[in-house]
């Protein structure tokens, strides 16, 4: 099914930033909504996907998919939530994609996980320069002419908080190292571990991949229209000179959450103040020798599952906790005797999202 995509026209003013517009977007006049001349088609990949087996971007019933771009003749020309592969470095491409998280805790972030749906390497000779940058950025209220996120589609436009530069910390992954196997994680450690105390974003920048002779890579997203308040996604052309735009503001059919997840090193523990995505979680008896404990508490009553993944994103354990009440401390005792020594990720899944911490098993 083709999705007509509405984009906001650029605001041509020396005092105001421009709004992102995809290549080929035709600006009819200033400060008006224009229809992009490229159609959008949602391609849902349901291989191995069911309501009982999902990476749980948000809602357990969601489907996994990609959002592809097609031209007027239905020819695929790239993907959203990544980069389209158009290699001109000065083109107004949406190379930056942010997944923003509600947070009221004091948390330290050590890395970023993401699911890659696919990639194309067009020039193997220059692959060393084809790098994805991912990092943590603060969310700050809208300031005219400096930063903001368009949250409405009619003039006068409404603006909300947005990611702001610079990165608090970032890491890189070369396109050759991006794993596109079904539901395998890609883990990017940060060069330093920032601590945040309010809402923040995981921001991915694909420009280095796109401008490297048209290489392409893109991420999975969840189903449309879930309208979850726990997290929301945005896109932008670049940090400087453009506003961010909320996918929900663009079109309800693109209300999607991207597979960008922060790995929390410290904070939002069971005895700490505040919640990360409506959850608190502590790991005890670590490094794990034989067993360890997961203590957790919810801000809102939710269905809960605790999962473990190895460093490559393969699920090694899942414990369904069922429906849990808000404000009550819960504990799960996990036996690790059958696991090989190494690095794992422990994830607390609730109806509100995903909370992940790293674990060493000895």
Layout: helices, strands, pairs:
Elements: E1 2-3, E2 6-8, E3 33-35, E4 39-44, E5 65-70, E6 76-79, E7 96-101, E8 107-114, E9 116-120, E10 131-140, E11 149-150, E12 159-160, E13 162-174, E14 186-189, E15 195-196, E16 200-205, H1 207-210, E17 216-219, E18 231-236, E19 244-246, H2 247-250, E20 260-266, E21 279-289, E22 291-298, E23 302-310, E24 315-324, E25 330-335, E26 342-350, E27 353-361
Parallel strand pairs: 11-19
Antiparallel strand pairs: 1-4, 2-3, 4-5, 5-6, 7-16, 7-18, 8-14, 8-15, 8-20, 9-17, 10-13, 10-16, 11-12, 18-19, 21-22, 22-25, 23-24, 23-26, 26-27
Give a structural overview.
By secondary structure, the protein is an all-beta fold. The protein has 2 domains: 2-264, no CATH class; 268-361, Sandwich (Immunoglobulin-like), CATH 2.60.40. Helices cover 2% and strands 45% of the residues. It has 2 helices and 27 strands. The chain has helices at 207-210, 247-250, and strands at 2-3, 6-8, 33-35, 39-44, 65-70, 76-79, 96-101, 107-114, 116-120, 131-140, 149-150, 159-160, 162-174, 186-189, 195-196, 200-205, 216-219, 231-236, 244-246, 260-266, 279-289, 291-298, 302-310, 315-324, 330-335, 342-350, 353-361. The strands form 7 sheets. An 8-stranded mixed β-sheet has the order 12-11-19-18-7-16-10-13. A 4-stranded antiparallel β-sheet has the order 1-4-5-6, with no helix packed on it.
